[in-house]
Amino acid sequence: MVDSASRQPTLSRRWTRRKSPRHWDHAFAALKKLIANGEDTTQVFEIIRALSGRSHEDNYVHLLAQPDGGRLAYEHLEFVEKLTDRTWVESFQPGTVGAAYAEFTSREHLSADGLLQVSLQASGDGDYQSPHPYDWYGRRLRDIHDIWHVVTGYGRDGLGEACMVAFAYAQTHGLGWAFISLGVALKSGDRRARRSIWEGYRRGCAAAWLPGEDYERLLGEPLEEARTRLNLGSSPIYDSVPMEIRRHPTVSHPSAHAYHGLAAA
């Protein structure tokens, strides 16, 4: 007789620790380092870990309530295996999300495998490779980060990443993202940059819930049709900010040094 308990995913120490209170002192120290050096995006990781609370678990439960969520969770696809298959990535028709993703990652010299390696180095946590559902959900969000860049239109520049942080907070309600976006907005000396970060939050609130998307299907959709279906709208404030301001290294793209959000929790 098979012991049913043996079939349960391992409950790693990391998720047990999530029951502990938020660590504001650690978060403030990490934010100070991030603002002092926008290239040190390992501090993003530290802030998310310090302030995420139960948002990660709550988002996984929310995924199960989505039309495709139960199937996606059951299939447990490790999406990085798809995205590191360059032949598959480059197989999408022109004008699709997939074609735009292929062009974006090629132009910016990015790869899902590179983000994977950086995330493992940043986490220093073997449990993060575990089969536990929350860990799988975290890996899924890590792997779709650059797809979010494509569908939102936010670039790899520092301001684009700050807007993505605000967008991620609206989508996931992870307090760490709000903390980072507020800190970046307060640091910025440009009114348009601050307004574009706020715009990112508002776009995240108005959009469909992106973590619940079937990304294999989404990549095959025409880009503009997908943006309309997801109610993403446009980003007129961000688009109007001069490139010299956008490039200010407030928050670097995660592939530069660290995983952009331990599960964007």
Keywords:
single chain; 19 helices; 62% helix
Could you explain the architecture of this structure?
This protein is mainly α. The protein has one domain. It has helices at 13-17, 24-36, 42-51, 55-64, 69-75, 79-83, 86-89, 97-107, 112-123, 133-143, 145-152, 158-172, 175-187, 191-206, 215-219, 223-229, 236-240, 243-246, 254-257. Helix 3 packs across helix 13. The longest helix has 16 residues, at 191-206.
Beta-strand content: under 5%
Order of helices and strands: HHHHHHHHHHHHHHHHHHH
Number of strands: 0
Number of domains: 1
Global geometry? globular
- Helix/strand class: mainly alpha
Spatial separation of the terminal alpha carbons: 38 Å
User: Total number of helical segments?
Assistant: 19
Sheet bearing the most strands, described? none
Q: What are the low-pLDDT stretches, counting only 5+ consecutive residues below 50?
A: 1-13, 255-265
Rounded mean pLDDT is 80
